[in-house]
C-alpha cells in the first residue's frame, strides 16, 4: 500500500506522452495529485500546481511518484539528486520503472537512514496464497479483451467513476503497474509466480458487502498466446459475476503476434463465459467496450450500433461516451 | 541441465512412499540410476545396488539426487554430512525439496570451494523469453486433465516409452520438479513468473525434426481454478498438434476444491481443443488416458470400453495397459 496523496515527479520528460503514468493519476484520482515536480527541460505539464518538495510536504503529499518513463532504463544522476532530497524531506518513493529503486544502493541507504519506503510496483510485496476457489460475498466485474491493450484499464476506471456517480459501492482493483500507481495498491499480476496468480486475485478482491462491486482491471486476452495464462488467472481468481467484452476493431492482427488474427466479439464471449462459469456459474456478459480511437465519430457510432444489434448488449466507447450504460447494466444485476 | 547419471540418495526414508522421486527415476530412466545411497534406518529400497560415494563415482555417477522427502522441511545434520562429503567427492547435488540447497550456507561454501553445482529444481535457472507464438517445426503432444493429479506425467512418460519402442523420435519435456529430476532438465513451470510462462514452454519445446514428437508434461487443469493459468500457458506455449485427455473417474470433487465438480471428458474436450487451436489450428484430440487405480480390473475394462464408445477415441490406463494405443494414434497423425 502506497501512502497517498502524491507529488508527481515528471523529471525532464521529453514530451507529454512520457508522463502518461502521472497523467493517469491526475485524470483518474485528482485527489491523489497534490502537485507536480518538474526539472529543467521538462516538456510535460499536467496543468496542476508546480511545487517544491517542501511545498508539497506542507500541502500533505506523502509519496513522490515517478510518473514518467526514463531514458534507456537508467535512473540519471539528475533524477537521483531529487529522489535523495525527497527521501530526506520525508517522502516515500514509488516507481513503475523496469529498473528498480531497490537496486540503487544510494537510494536504499538514504531510505534506511531516513526510515522511508521505496515502492517498486512491478515487484510483488506480498506472499500471495494459492487460490481456494471459495465463493466470496460481494460482486465482481472483469473486462476481458479480444486482444491486449484494447482499453480494459480505461474501461474499468471509467466504470468506477460512473458507478460512484450513481452512488453505487465500487472499488477499482488494479492488476498492473499504472493502475497500482493510480490507486496506491493492487497486484502486479504479470510479475507474480505462476502458482500464486489466481490466489493473488482472490486476495485482491476479498469478501465485501453484498451490494459492493470490485471492478477488476483485466490483463492480456485468452486469445493472446503470450499472456493468456494471466488472463485465465483473472477469470478464475476473480470469479466475476459480470464480464465486459473489450475490443479494438481496427487492429490488423494480435498485438505483437503478426500471424494471429484478432477474434470476434462472439468468439470472445463464447470462450470466456464458459471459463468464467467454472468459478461462478451465475456469471453473465453485461456489455461491450469498444476502443474507437482510430474511427471518426460517425464510424464509431455506426460500429457501436452494429455491435449492439448483433450482440444484444450495450456497446459503448467509454472514452468518447462514458461508461454510464455499462454501470446501468451492472446496476440491473 | 543436471549431469547424469545419478546416485540416488534415500537418506533415512521412513517408508517406500517417501522415496517416490527416486522410484520415479529408477522406473522411468533406469539408465540414470547408477545406485542408491541409504543411511542407517532407511526403510526404502529401490532394488538397485547400494553404493558408497566412492563406488558410485567410480561407476560414473555425476550427481547425487535427493530422491526422498525430508521431515518438517529441514535438511538434517545427518543428511548434511553426506551431502558435504558428496560435494567433496566431486558430485553435484540436485534437489526438489521446498527448502533449498542454496539456502544452506555450509553447502554453498563447500560447493564453491569444490567447484560443484547445487541444483534446486523448484527454482527457474533460466531467463525465459516472452512467448512469440511463432509456429515451430516438429510435433508436440500435451496431456490435459479434467483435474490436477490425474496421471498426466505418468501418461507422458509411458507414451515416451511406447514411442521409443516403435522407433519414433520423441522427447519427454518435464514441466514439474519430479519430471525434471527424472530426465535432468525441464522447466519448473509453477515457479515461473506469470509473464514468462508461455515463453518458457516455447523455450522447452523448440524447433525440431518434422517427425519428432515433444511429449510435454501437463500441469493443473483448465477447470482447476487454482492452477488453470499454468495449464493455459502450456496449451498456448506448447502449441500442441495433439491433446490427450486425462481423467480419474472416482474423484468426488476437484482436488482441494470441495465445492467444484470434476467436469466430464466431453467438457474437457470442448474447452481445451478450441483453446489449443488458437495457437495451432491443426490440433486434434487423439486419445484418452484414464487413471483406474481405484477400480477393479473388470470395472476398469468396462469403464474404458464405455469411454471409447462415447468419445470415439482410444481410451487406456497407461499404468495397467501401457500407452501403445496412444502411440499408435500419434503415429497416425
* Proportion in helices of chain A: 25-40%
What does the main sheet of chain A amount to? 6 strands, parallel
> How many alpha or pi helices of chain A?
12
Radius of gyration of CA atoms of chain A, rounded to a whole number: 20 Å
Which stretches of chain A are poorly predicted, pLDDT < 50 over at least 5 residues? none
Overall SS class of chain A = alpha/beta
| Strand coverage percent of chain A | 15-25%
N-end to C-end Cα span of chain A: 31 Å
Average pLDDT score of chain A? 96
Q: What is the oligomeric state here?
A: homodimer
Can you tell me the overall shape of chain A? globular
Strand neighbour order, sheet with most strands of chain A: 7-8-6-9-10-11
User: Could you name the CATH homologous superfamily of the largest domain in chain A?
Assistant: P-loop containing nucleotide triphosphate hydrolases
CATH top level of the largest domain in chain A is: Alpha Beta
Beta-strand segment tally of chain A: 11
Largest interface by Cβ-Cβ < 8 Å: A-B, 41 and 41 residues
Order of H and E elements of chain A? EHEHEHEHEEHEHHEHEHEHEHH
Amino acid at each position: 500500500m502506497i501512502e497517498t496523496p502524491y507529488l508527481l515527479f515528471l523529471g525532464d520528460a521529453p514530451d507529454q506522452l512520457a508522463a502518461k503514468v502521472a497523467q493517469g493519476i491526475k485524470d483518474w484520482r485528482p485527489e491523489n495529485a497534490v502537485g507536480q515536480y518538474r526539472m529543467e527541460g521538462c516538456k510535460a505539464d499536467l496543468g496542476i500546481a508546480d511545487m517544491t518538495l517542501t511545498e508539497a510536504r506542507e500541502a500533505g503529499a506523502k509519496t513522490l511518484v515517478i510518473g514518467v518513463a526514463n531514458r534507456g532504463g537508467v535512473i540519471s544522476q539528475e533524477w537521483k539528486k531529487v529522489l535523495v532530497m525527497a527521501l530526506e524531506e520525508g517522502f516515500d518513493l514509488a516507481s513503475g520503472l523496469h529498473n528498480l529503486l531497490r537496486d540503487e544502493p544510494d537510494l536504499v541507504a538514504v531510505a534506511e537512514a531516513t526510515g522511508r519506503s521505496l515502492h517498486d510496483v512491478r515487484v510483488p510485496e506480498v506472499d500471495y496464497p494459492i487460490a481456494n476457489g471459495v465463493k466470496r460475498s460481494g460482486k465482481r466485474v472483469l473486462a476481458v479483451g479480444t486482444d491486449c491493450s484494447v482499453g480494459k484499464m480505461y474501461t474499468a476506471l471509467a466504470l468506477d467513476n460512473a458507478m460512484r456517480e450513481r452512488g453505487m459501492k465500487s472499488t477499482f482493483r488494479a492488476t498492473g503497474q499504472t493502475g497500482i500507481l493510480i490507486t496506491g495498491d493492487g497486484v502486479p499480476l504479470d510479475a507474480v509466480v505462476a502458482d500464486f496468480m489466481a490466489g493473488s486475485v482472490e486476495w485482491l478482491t476479498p469478501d465485501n458487502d453484498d451490494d459492493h462491486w470490485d471492478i477488476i482491471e483485466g490483463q492480456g486476452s485468452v486469445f493472446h498466446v503470450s499472456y493468456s495464462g494471466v488472463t485465465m488467472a483473472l477469470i478464475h481468481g476473480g470469479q466475476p459475476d459480470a464480464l465486459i467484452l473489450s475490443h479494438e476493431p481496427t487492429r490488423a492482427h494480435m498485438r505483437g503476434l503478426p500471424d494471429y488474427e484478432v477474434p470476434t466479439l462472439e468468439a470472445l464471449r463464447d470462450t470466456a463465459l464458459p471459463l468464467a462459469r467454472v468459478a461462478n456459474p451465475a456469471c453473465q456478459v453485461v456489455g461491450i467496450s469498444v476502443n474507437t480511437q482510430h474511427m471518426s465519430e460517425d464510424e464509431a457510432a455506426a460500429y457501436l450500433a452494429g455491435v449492439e444489434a448483433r450482440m444484444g448488449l450495450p456497446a459503448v466507447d467509454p472514452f468518447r461516451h462514458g461508461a454510464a450504460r455499462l454501470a446501468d447494466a451492472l446496476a440491473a444485476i
